[in-house]
Every structure is written in C-alpha cells, then in structure tokens.
C-alpha cells in the first residue's frame, strides 16, 4: 500500500483565493475563511448563508435504534411511550426512531430498557446510514475499522443477527472500554475487539472480509451544531494531514476485503477534500480493482459532487450520498459504497 503524504494532498487542495463575501461571512459566524469560501464554491452564496444559519440553529433530535434481537420494537416503543417519550420512525430504518419529545426524567440514555441493551442512542440520525448501506448478512466476516464507541459496530452485528464474526478495531486504546461496554450491554457475542492502526491490518488480515466499514476519523465538519469549535479547529494544513490518513485507511479497507466484497467509506464531514477527493484518489490507485456502486436506501439524499474548484471527480462519485444539515436537518455526512472486483 502506497503511503500518501500531506504535502501532495495539500498541492491538490490548497487555495488562497478568498472572496470578500467569504471573509465577511467567516467573520460574522466565526469560521476560518477558507471553509466559508469552500461552501460558497459548492453551494453558492445564498445556500451558504442557509447552511451557516442552520449550524447556528439546528439541534437534531436524538435517535434510538431498537435492538430487535432482544425485544420486539413495538413493545419497546409502547414501554417508552408510557414513560413520556414520543417517537417518529426514520424513513430509511424502520427499527430506528427520532425522540421527538421526552420527560424531564429519566433521560433516553438512563432507562431500564437502555441498560438492558434494548436500544442504542445516537445524538442524530446520520450515523445509522453507513451500516444499512453496508448490509452485512448473517454468517459474514465483517470489519469495522474505526469502531469506537460502538454505534456502527453494534448496528452491524444486529444486521448480522449476531451470527458470523465482526472484528471491531480501534486505534485509540482509551476508546476501547466504551466500545466493549456497548457490545456487552446489548448482548452480542459474535465479535472480537482489537486495538491497532487500521492501516496495519492488511499485514495480517488481507483479503479476509466480506465487507469493511471505514468510518474514518475526520474533521467532523458536519457536526458544527454539536461542537462549534470545529469552525476554527482545522487549518488547511491540518486538513491535508487528515485527508492523507483517510486515503490510507480506505486503501487498507480495500486490501482487507475479499474479491467481490463491499467497502463502505463514511465521514461526518461536508468537506469535499475528505470525501469525493478521497474517492477520486482511491479510484486512481485501484483502477480496475474497485468501483463505486449506487446506494439504494429510502430518502432524498444529495449526490456526491461532480467537481470542486479545479478538481473534476469521476462520474461514478455521484453515486455516493451527501447529507447536508440545511437540506436534510441532520448532521452533515458522506457515505460511499465500493465493490472490490478482484
């Protein structure tokens, strides 16, 4: 697997052509100017204003994912309704529910049903999408490369009916206890937890997995409504380092999948550098070995970008999906499904 340097990434993504409008909006909302210029280049000035205002105002509803392997979902909803919780189902996940109202006590993460492992709690709906796109089956051998704290890992095991094997890896040892806690709390058994840099895994697990999830550590720019410090945390140089690592992680994911296997790449970022650019680089590196596949789940998602500034992305990148906070009223997300051909 070829190493990717931050310098070569920076060569492709760097720009200092910041308009007066971008500087003014950046000052008004407290962003790094290059980020606002990027939004203008993707969306235009009026939609950029809508995005920035959405980040200020949007507070998405939390979401629960019913663990139907342990409880009937209708029964779970009735029990929580009786405690004062009210829900609406997600369009693309009929066992996932937005918490549209709740009592002052208990919180949704402190009920008896939660501690019994009957459901998982997300701060937002977007993270439910990648495992559904990955769609593992019972008996599969599956990898979650960056698994902590466990939302997607437990979702994958649920889709696998807790049959087969999930390898749940995370590089950060400090995050492993949270991952294990959720796996045990929800009653799963068909997993092994390992602690390694995902880029090292092909040395001993190449061509092993029916499907691989690469939910890459990123700038988290899609979640500014949860963490306003993201407005200024990632300089363009920092971004280049993140992107180089994301390319290497996804390359590792491809080498880990069996021929014919699925690799899902996702980020909680709306930055094209971390999304379409990464896919473009991977398609160049693995020409004829991987292809981008369409994503068929309910919802009116936005497609991947065809181009951004001086970068023209492969046509197939439009098969990836984008979740925009101002369009979809959720945390910003990017999801792409790849197939390893040989």
Brief account:
Strands 5, 6, 7, 8, 9, 10, 11, 14 and 15 form a 9-stranded mixed beta sheet that branches. Strands 2-3-1-4 form a 4-stranded antiparallel beta sheet, with helices on both faces. Strands 12-13 form a two-stranded antiparallel sheet. It is α/β, with parallel strands linked by helices and about 350 residues long. It has helices spanning about 5-15, 20-30, 35-45, 45-55, 75-80, 110-115, 130-135, 150-160, 175-185, 200-205, 235-255, 275-285, 325-330; strands at about 65, 85-90, 95-100, 120, 140-145, 165-170, 190-195, 210-215, 255-265, 290-295, 300-305, 305-310, 310, 320-325, 335-340.
What can you see in these coordinates?
It is a single chain. The strands form three sheets. Strands 5, 6, 7, 8, 9, 10, 11, 14 and 15 form a nine-stranded mixed sheet that branches. Strands 2-3-1-4 form a four-stranded antiparallel sheet, with helices on both faces. A two-stranded antiparallel ribbon has the order 12-13. The protein folds into three domains: 19-57; 63-122, Sun protein, domain 3 (Alpha-Beta Plaits); 126-340, Vaccinia Virus protein VP39 (Rossmann fold). The chain is an alpha/beta fold. It has helices spanning 6-13, 20-29, 33-43, 45-57, 73-82, 112-115, 129-134, 151-159, 176-185, 202-205, 236-256, 276-285, 325-328, and strands spanning 63-66, 86-90, 93-101, 119-122, 141-144, 165-169, 191-194, 209-215, 257-267, 290-293, 302-303, 307-308, 311-312, 321-323, 333-340. The model has no long low-confidence stretch (mean pLDDT 97).
